């Protein structure tokens, strides 16, 4: 598991270094994630990559370890919220209204999409 987590962090570090070095308008972790995805897709083609941290056992143990401690990943977000309490207090009502509006818009979009797909599937059944 340690090797797999090290590989994840190495991909993130590589992405961050490339983005900063080339001045790309892209977050470093996103490029690192794309690098990790490329490595995972390539592991089936190359036997050398299929063993070790990229092997199915390595990925599975790392993912189980991350899921077991998933709540720890919310600590930085919670600290960020606590640091901005004065901002939340001054704009609290606007934030609540925007959140409520976004929930309503999301629900409406979901319902309309469901109805459209349902109608298209019914038309397809009659053909």
What would a concise description of this structure say?
This protein is mainly α and about 130 residues long. About 80% of the residues lie in helices and about 0% in strands.
Main β sheet profile: none
Measured distance between first and last alpha carbons: 53 Å
Quote the beta fraction. under 5%
The shape, in one word, is extended
Number of individual domains: 2
> What is the share of helical residues?
over 70%
What average pLDDT do the residues reach? 84
Structural class: mainly alpha
H and E string: HHHHHH
Please report the number of helical segments. 6
Task: Give the radius of gyration.
Answer: 22 Å
Could you name the ranges where pLDDT drops below 50 across 5 or more consecutive residues? none
What is the β-strand count?
0
What does this structure look like?
- This protein is mostly helical.
- The protein has two domains: 1-68, no CATH class; 76-127.
- The protein is built from six helices and no strands.
- It has helices at 2-22, 28-42, 47-50, 56-68, 75-83, 85-126.
- The longest helix has 42 residues, at 85-126.
- The mean pLDDT is 84.
- The chain crosses the membrane at residues 31-54, 66-85, 91-117.
- Pfam families: LrgA.
């Amino acid at each position: 598991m340690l090797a797999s987590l090290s590989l994840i962090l190495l991909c993130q570090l590589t992405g961050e270094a490339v983005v900063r070095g080339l001045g790309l308008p892209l977050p470093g972790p996103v490029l690192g994630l794309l690098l990790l995805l490329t490595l995972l897709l390539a592991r089936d083609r190359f036997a050398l990559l299929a063993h070790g941290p990229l092997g199915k056992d390595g990925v599975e143990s790392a993912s189980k370890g991350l899921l077991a401690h998933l709540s720890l990943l919310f600590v930085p977000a919670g600290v960020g919220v606590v640091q901005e309490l004065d901002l939340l207090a001054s704009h609290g009502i606007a934030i609540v209204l925007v959140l409520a509006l976004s929930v309503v818009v999301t629900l409406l979009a979901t319902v309309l999409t469901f109805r459209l797909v349902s109608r298209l599937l019914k038309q397809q059944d009659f053909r």
